[in-house]
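Tokens for Anthranilate phosphoribosyltransferase family protein. Go.
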Amino acid sequence: MSHAFRELLRKVGSGTHTSEPLTREEAAAATRMMLLQEATPAQIGAFMIAHRIRRPTGTELAGMLDAYETLGPRLQSIAAAHPVTVLSVPYDGRSRTAPLSPLLALLLATANCPVVSHGGDRMPTKEGEPLIDYWRGLGIDWSQLSLAQVQHVLESTGIGFLYLPSHFPLAHGLVPYREQIGKRPPLATMELLWSPYAGETHLVSGFVHPPTELMFQEAIALRGITHFTSVKGLEGSCDLPRERTAIIGLGAPTIGFERLTLHPRDYGFEGKNVALEATPTFVEAMLTVLAGQPSELMQSTLWNGGFYLWRCGSCRSLEAGIQEAKRLLTEGLVLQKLRDLQQAATPLQLAH
């Protein structure tokens, strides 16, 4: 048993009226002890559920991120025309709507806006299909690449993906607790702010509830992050919805924080969000989009791709971003990016 961890557990788990938030240093220490398994399983499970009940603060999230930075993997800085966009989505996947992250990564990288994502296998509590499986369907198995090989692929194609079980096994070691406590722990919130990239980044985080975005703002301010985007996206992801107004937070050194609301009907994209399908079926639908063929998934990709091309600095306006996304897809340039990615990754996969 860790006596040091027990004191931190007492602080967060002493009840509604007497519990106290951890300092940034204490949150970092608690996270390190959990990652290193210095705390016992009973202590880790108790901490996770007590911390969830009390809810984390932005200061605590900053401390947890400090621990991830200390113990976790880091992709090194690459030469790029734009900062690397880190697309952070819930690790436990989706249950209702189709994920756009792989298509957005390919589209942005085609426009010289590099993208890094991270995640693991099927994970509690939602147990949705993980992004790694969609990438496998597209011919890229990130789980077969070492961190150094992911670095090489990022440098050569502008796309990288960190796979928890092999690239951050310490964090993967905490996944069973999610199933055992039956709830997302605050770690699941913190992961939406984690950037496993050492260079200049544009952090994009999805959220569901407004208080979560407020925690995001506090944590990233403490961490010195000034270039970020927060999206009230589909199922907590970075994907802009088509059935409702998109609520977005914009952060940049020159503007501070600004609120942006986008109405899809104003741009001709109002409609139903694409429903989640079995992975093989959805992979085929993604390939149809990459072939430039019209579909509801293409409409969702253009709506999202146009926004992110503008937000990442590739286009001067949202309207120009939408037109550029359409051009890149219909002219086969995004499909060529997938082929370039396959060409870069396949020999590394086979050599694993």
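The domain at 84-335 is CATH 3.40.1030.10 (Pyrimidine Nucleoside Phosphorylase; Chain A, domain 2).
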